[in-house]
Design a protein that fits this description.
heterodimer; A: 163 residues; mainly alpha; globular; B: 156 residues; 70% helix
Chain lengths: 163, 156
């Protein structure tokens, strides 16, 4: 059974789905800020990331256990290329970076840089077809989008860099 | 940490996230469930960090420092995983492109609100013209690639 199809049954309203996407976005910077605050209090970015990864795992395991968000083909893990599991390392590194810098840069600049550099890296991954992705050329739209990202990040970072 | 180093750190974080998403996307093709792929990602990250503490590379902080803190300070990881889950719930109904645009809008609006209102104990930062223009540029970039063009990946 396809996990996405099962998930679809949860939201048959377009408006609720939009609210879910928006709310998912809203929660992201809150999570980053709380991880940053936790790191500031404990003076340990690594411990903050450890607690974040553990609590995130527990919530996801709980949601999966309800069985309402799609089935899992666990035997597929045996067939998956080993490098897929390296995603854990990069996911952890992402949490560490976000947690380390948010107190210095503030929420908006941190989230904007995370978002912008993620999209630019995504363009690179697509262009070269890395990590098993289909190749997508770095076309004119992507070039303009890259320029917009660089201009946007410069506008956001300039006041902090000047002062 | 100085601002240029922090900017570099955030850029490395964003690049890592893109790689993590690609690996997750590939993993999902084998185990079907995007939620389970996220669970493996979180659990693997936890085990890697736990190893650092177990082998003594990093030490546990003084836990009494947390005793006077509000309960919400512990919720970062849980809220982060809920953020990903809400995104996954929306994608089948809205499609990847619209989900990403709406999610980006939510991220940027909430970020500015947190800074402006000083929520969760962060330092207040005013919303100035540069900030609004910068956010609009990012949103335009996401719109340009995710709505005009067929997308190829999910964010979370």
């Amino acid at each position: 059974m396809n996990g996405l199809n099962q998930t679809e049954a949860l939201v048959d309203s377009h408006m609720i789905a939009i609210l879910c996407a928006f709310f998912g976005g809203v929660l992201f910077p809150i999570a980053s800020v709380l991880n940053g605050q936790f790191a500031a209090v404990t003076q340990s970015v690594l411990f903050s990331a450890l607690v974040a990864e553990l609590s995130g795992s527990l919530v996801l395991a709980g949601l999966l256990a309800t069985g309402r968000l799609g089935g899992v083909a666990w035997d597929g893990l045996k067939r998956a290329p080993r490098w897929c599991l390296a995603g854990c390392f990069f996911g952890m590194f992402f949490v560490l970076c976000g947690t380390s810098v948010i107190a210095t840069l503030g929420t908006t600049l941190t989230i904007a840089i995370l978002l912008g550099s993620q999209i630019l890296m995504g363009f690179g991954i697509d262009s070269f077809g890395w990590f098993g992705c289909d190749r997508t050329p770095f076309n004119r739209r992507r070039q303009v989008a890259s320029l917009l990202i660089l201009v946007g990040l410069t506008l956001l970072a300039a006041p902090a860099l000047i002062t | 940490m100085t601002i240029p180093w922090a900017i570099l750190g955030a850029m490395l974080g964003g690049v890592s996230f893109a790689v993590s998403i690609s690996a997750n996307h590939r993993l999902r093709q084998f185990i079907v469930s995007p939620l389970a792929a996220n669970l493996i990602n979180f659990t693997g990250g936890f085990l890697l960090l736990l190893t650092l503490f177990l082998v003594g590379i990093s030490r546990l902080p003084e836990l009494h420092l947390l005793s006077n803190q509000p309960g919400w300070i512990f919720l970062g990881g849980a809220i982060g995983s809920m953020s990903a889950t809400f995104g996954l719930i929306a994608i089948p109904r809205l499609g990847l492109a619209i989900s990403l645009v709406v999610s980006t809008l939510g991220q940027l609006i909430m970020s500015m609100l947190i800074d402006w209102a000083g929520l969760f104990g962060v330092t207040h930062q005013p919303v100035h013209l540069f900030r609004i223009l910068g956010v609009l540029c990012l949103l335009a970039a996401v719109l340009l690639t995710q709505v005009v063009e067929r997308p190829t990946r999910q964010q979370h």
